[in-house]
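Entry type: protein chain
Record version: 2
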Amino acid sequence: MELYLDTAKIEEIEEGVELGVISGVTTNPSLLAKANPSAPIEHLKKICSIVKGPVSAEVVSTNFKDMISEGLKIAKIAENIVVKIPITEDGLKATKVLSRENIAVNMTLIFSESQAILASLVGAAYISPFIGRLDDISYDGMNLVKSISEILNITNSKSKIIAASVRHPLHVVQAAKAGAHIATVPFKTIKQLAQNPLTDIGLEKFLKDSKGISIVN
């Protein structure tokens, strides 16, 4: 499973890439607003230059014709850009058109198997179930990932699952077990994945025991 960063902050993306574990980035209007770029298009170009993998940028239009127009403009930002479109009737129409133009679409705000099936049928390259938001309302978001994974395997779909709305490291582990191709996570969670108190204790002991020992002259 690949890891994407769910952020639009340049400093977080640069550090994430430096760690060597980030394969892509997902953004949305809310994340872009938090980054507060003076020129959003140039900001997205910068992200695409830092990350060699897919970078999702979301349309803000709700009418399918406007979605298509906006999606075509977004697609021109960089070769690795992915157009992010919400799962609505207009979104499905727009995704069908854009996918026929070989433009990669990340269909977002997926909360059911039926929505995932429709996203796959219109050619979405990526399907993003929001596991954390389902957990928030007492539904098991990870069961949805498992179910979508089974459906895509049975139907030989080329769509990839992006486990989105990840809240903590356990979500990442569960998403990998559930069959997600990708988990998109906040920068804080990426750092948490590397942390373990036993690692800290072990390192402290190693350093204590190694005093006076020099391996490298």
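Comment: The chain has eleven helices and eight strands.
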